[in-house]
Design goal:
Layout (H helix, E strand, L loop, with lengths): L3 E6 L10 H9 L2 E6 L7 H6 L9 E6 L6 H20 L4 E5 L9 H10 L3 E5 L4 H9 L10 E5 L6 H9 L2 E5 L5 H10 L7 E5 L7 E3 L11 E6 L5
Bound molecules: S-adenosylmethionine.
């Protein structure tokens, strides 16, 4: 019988936010795999599962999904990974590929799932806690209330119109990939006549050096930084 590919969401950082379903599949599968952009860079997702999953008798595989600007180089690398995954599945092994936060939110994993499914293998997606949900609970702030809408956007330094549009039209905005642009985003919020206190920085949620609080101008934030911008706080 062919093996099955599981996409396992491991939550944003706190190992205790791994779901029971994720743990059960990780305990039972033959191979635990994780995607990287560069060989040997390590995996935050792997560190998250370590306290709760015994890896001593598991095969752990790294798959490189390069983001090389040359699309041909990228495609060749990805094909190598897909071929290797397919060959393990063909030999009857179950693979659990782990991914940070929830796999439906800005995750390379969804492409892997689609490609492996198109090769005729069975796959299953296991949801988890997205970074901004854990961040909002640590901040004690609702993401939405009543009739309010919530929009989730990635901050792209070359295309800030998405944030302009969100600030004009939505009560609640989650800005992902904000790490290099926190001061710039704060300037945009202030230019709309809003107080900077409507921004909550959620950085390294569930990790060492976690910071949940107001914008500190001039501070450097790491890649794992998400902002929650609210129009108004309702009780
Ligand atoms: C490629 S996306 C992955 C999102 C992830 N799938 C999720 O559900 O949160 C990477 C972005 O997610 C956010 N992120 C992921 N983990 C985080 C964490 N522990 N703390 C703060 N932000 C995080 C950051 O905005 C980061 O730039």
């Amino acid at each position: 019988m062919k093996g099955k590919l599981f996409g396992i969401s491991v939550g944003p950082g706190d190992p205790d936010l791994l779901t029971l379903k994720a743990k059960q599949i990780l305990d039972e599968c033959d191979i635990i795999a994780y995607p990287v952009k560069t060989a040997g860079e390590g995996s935050v997702a792997l560190n998250i599962i370590k306290p709760n999953v015994d890896l001593s008798n598991k095969e752990v595989r790294e798959y490189v999904f390069s983001m090389n600007p040359d699309y041909t180089v990228r495609e060749q690398g990805w094909k190598k990974a897909y071929d290797d995954i397919a060959s393990a599945l063909e030999s009857g092994k179950d693979i659990a590929m782990i991914t940070l936060g929830d796999l439906s939110i800005f995750s390379t994993y969804m492409r892997i799932d689609r490609m492996i499914k198109s090769r005729g293998f069975e796959t299953e997606l296991v949801p988890g806690v997205p970074s901004f949900c854990h961040g909002a609970s640590l901040a004690g702030i609702p993401l939405t209330m009543g009739e309010e809408a919530l929009v989730v956007i990635p901050f792209n330094t070359d295309r800030s119109e998405a944030l302009e549009n969100a600030l004009d039209n939505y009560e609640n905005i989650v800005v992902m990939k904000a790490f290099k642009s926190v001061d710039r985003i704060a300037d945009m919020v202030v230019s709309k006549g809003r107080d900077i206190s409507c921004i909550t920085v959620m950085s390294n949620i569930g990790m060492d050096d976690e910071y949940i609080g107001p914008v500190i101008r001039g501070r450097e934030y790491g890649y794992f930084t998400t902002l929650l911008i609210k129009k108004e706080m309702k009780e």
